[in-house]
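thought: fold this chain, then report.
action: predict
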Amino acid sequence: MQTPSAVVISRDSLQALIDALAGDGYRVLGPRVHEGAIVYDHLARVGDLPEGWTDRQDAGRYRLERRDDRALFGFVVGPQSWKRFLHPSQETMWTMRRSEQGGVALDPAPEPREKFAFIGVRACELAAIAVHDRVFVGGTYADLGYATRRANAFIVAVNCGEAGGTCFCVSMETGPKAKSGFDLALTELIAKGRHDFLVETGSEAGAAVLARIPQRPASAEDLDAAAAATARAAGQMGRRMETEGLKELLQANLEHPRWDQVAERCLTCGNCTMVCPTCFCTTIEEQGDLAGASAARVKKWDSCFTLQHSYIHGGSVRQSARSRYRQWMTHKLASWIDQFGTSGCVGCGRCITWCPVGIDITEEAAAIRATPGAVQGVPHGRP
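observation:
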């Protein structure tokens, strides 16, 4: 990682950045407005970005509204995360073919060749990608497909200038400013008479691309404006989560009555796991054609909210909504730390926004902590 340096590029120069990445063979992806939401899709020009749009989010609520300026990144995060590209929802592991002579040929999945350039990655999403790096390539057994896609990814982060109604990245120490894990990081500077981007370099690859973009050195005023933007976002968090001793608190209250209360509302639909940028559970399907001439093993996203997820020897281990919600929340905020050394939550707030009944993970954690008689966990290393 190089020491970050800062320059300023104009709004027009952002098109030069997109063109440079496309010219280098990257599939350029970024936020776009589609069917009433901001999603991640192909970008060819600056005009594809959600210019002048913002989002309003609360528990179980999401809508887009027009801004009174032409900001290109004046929103937070939508229903999709970058995991759909690095850890796709469906991936063929191998295929098998029966030959005319009766033999069988096994073909492993081809190595991923497509290179991605992500534009508009928020700090919380960088933290989520770092979590997946630990899960998929940081252990004894690496996911080769993920490792290849990750190595070929170019990341352009965007520091948040405002927070959403369900954001709590400050509580999780994951934002709103990107600190690492990017090739380039942008801070949008929009005010009367100007629309520029402060750009920080985070890698040699980023520096090489930036060198081809029209730019000027950042002034003290530019740096102050960028710092003020992220400070403003930090002060606007829509939610807060107290993380001190949270792991121990949850693990000490597995029979707390709050689990029954939340289960009365939970639909076990799995929306929270689908929109979460760190949930990574998968299932394996064996697929074959009717003629018996070919077959394939396919890996697909799964959710701990399904009965099939914990199916063992004729039955599901977690048959109730209570046990499934408890599994998800305690894994996310507690046992994930035991497994990977970090929380599985990055404070993006997606699980709150996209829950059909508005269940709020920060509210559930606070309710258990505040209940009289709840067993209070003690953080490791503390008396």
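thought: worth noting. Residues 321-340 form the longest helix (20 residues).
final: tokens above.
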